[in-house]
Amino acid sequence: VDQDLNRIWTEQNVNKTPTDDIAETKELRELIHCFEAIRREAAGPIAMLDLHTFSAEGLPFAVADESPQSRQLGDILPVPTVLGATKYVSGTLLEYVTRQGIPMVAVEGGMHQ
Description:
Blueprint: H1 11-15, H2 23-41, E1 48-54, E2 61-64, H3 68-75, E3 81-83, H4 93-99, E4 104-111
Parallel strand pairs: 1-4, 2-3
Antiparallel strand pairs: 2-4
């Protein structure tokens, strides 16, 4: 792992010409192409759920931006939802997707083994 894939979704990285061979940058580009295809082919509104685990002990929780659509997604999940975290952590997939106008929630599902 050269970079944290969930910290490279900045405008600069998304818009730059793909010249480096870092695995995470290639994966970012592949995911962008997938997102664009989904948006083109969707028959109706779309939303995204991003699943994560974490390395420390803790209870599951969701993270959403403060848009009404993302808050609604968070409200239907059976875990607490943290709002506004994108103000403090930049380059996340959550930040990128919501800038595209797609409601999204990231779920931190608990400790991975």
